[in-house]
């Protein structure tokens, strides 16, 4: 996130009458606001929001076993709604408000008109825009954590976990690394758009939570085929295209740096996907669609901390690394590690986000271009990639940057392991973290009384069944019986 507060758009004595009437300031358009930047920031926020709703809802719903499609999608939908309410009530000010301690802000609301209409702490747009933009980042982090817990977590436990983790883990990482008053932010760590705050956090927290929740049923662990690969691809496509706003919105301006970040993002993702695909072909003999999606995600994750501060050739190198190193940890290291095999990480969030996020942070420390860092941060010589330090005879700057990048990884890992464990232990005192074995055998109907696909009467239920939903009684039961009878008649005629 940019730490440079842009200068006022006009000199103090500027004659506003010289502007076209649609650009003249008024009560709804104060002189400090840029309509273009505000519009782009709202669009970028919406693109990021669509990565979650419907992007990850569709991806999760299609990537799991049929009996878990509703539960998996609903975990994402619930998290999105819950995070927004918590965000405006206390989360935003904890993450970006006045300093309480070097790693945390003061508790306050972001709901009052007077506050929301003020200029944001960075950028030429109001707080209302910034609050929404930062919310979609917080929401997707919780939804990524859900990916490690699909197929067995008690939904009531998830309902408690989301607000607690947002409050006591996410806000600490966001304030420390992104806030202009944060400890690592002031030291000069580079995290352009969330390689640490979002991806490393979600990967470590998801893996830690998966340890405490426990594994899926033995049957599900042995065989867990996607119920709809095409639907999963649609969700992956929304995730990929939504990354335009994810990385393109972080200069807080419709600037040349935003353009570079967008291009680098897609170049790295494409390179990573192709690298993963080639490795699958070489070692397994077939091009895997699921593998291609994993490669796409690792590329997007790895370029995120570097997107606007590296050159295009560095984006390709990052893509090559993100398509090969997480592939190796997932396909080779995972199968040889007892710890990795013991923890049931359903969507391999540890590899795609923790490993790829750490990799991206380290590569950022190597390839960060001082000129591009100046365009983003507004400071010369404070942000210096290691290789540029060697080139320019500023080895100390390069070593310092690498040290900060590694310190950031250590900080995020420790915070998330500790806080996630404490939250899981607390939730466990209130409700079980894990569904019962009987409910895990049933899946969606046991958890929600609903199922994803009702084909030829598979959606019909008896009131005595454990998974009966009140919503099916009046709203859909009649229609389901009618459709089933029609389908049955057509089959009998054939």
Helices and strands: which structural class?
mainly alpha
**Name of the CATH superfamily:** Ammonium transporter AmtB like domains
In total, the number of strands is 2
What's the helix-strand series?
HHEEHHHHHHHHHHHHHHHHHH
Biggest sheet descriptor: 2 strands, antiparallel
Helical percentage: 55-70%
How many discrete domains? 1
Biggest sheet strand order reads 1-2
Please report which band the strand proportion falls in: under 5%, 5-15%, 15-25%, 25-35%, 35-45% or over 45%.
under 5%
Supply the number of helical segments: 20
Name the shape in a single word: globular
CATH topology: Ammonium transporter fold
**CATH architecture assignment:** Orthogonal Bundle
The end-to-end span amounts to 63 Å
Overall mean pLDDT stands at: 90
Please compute the radius of gyration using only Cα atoms.
Answer: 24 Å
* Assigned CATH class: Mainly Alpha
- Contiguous uncertain segments of 5+ residues: 461-469, 472-494
Pfam family, one: Ammonium_transp
GO biological process, one term: ammonium transmembrane transport
GO cellular component, one term: plasma membrane
Keywords: Ammonia transport, Membrane, Transmembrane, Transmembrane helix, Transport
List keywords for this structure.
mainly alpha, 1% strand, globular, Ammonium transporter fold, 494 residues, 20 helices, disordered C terminus, two-stranded antiparallel sheet
Task: Give the secondary structure arrangement, pairings included.
Layout: H1 35-63, H2 69-96, E1 99-101, E2 104-105, H3 113-116, H4 127-146, H5 155-178, H6 183-187, H7 195-213, H8 218-222, H9 229-248, H10 256-284, H11 289-303, H12 312-336, H13 338-342, H14 349-367, H15 370-377, H16 386-391, H17 395-430, H18 437-442, H19 444-448, H20 470-493
Antiparallel strand pairs: 1-2
Helix pairs in contact: 1-2, 1-4, 1-9, 2-4, 2-5, 4-7, 5-7, 5-17, 7-14, 7-17, 9-10, 9-11, 10-11, 10-12, 11-12, 11-14, 12-14, 14-17
GO molecular function: ammonium channel activity
Transmembrane segments: 39-61, 73-93, 131-150, 157-176, 196-214, 226-246, 289-307, 313-333, 354-377, 406-431
Family: Belongs to the ammonia transporter channel (TC 1.A.11.2) family.
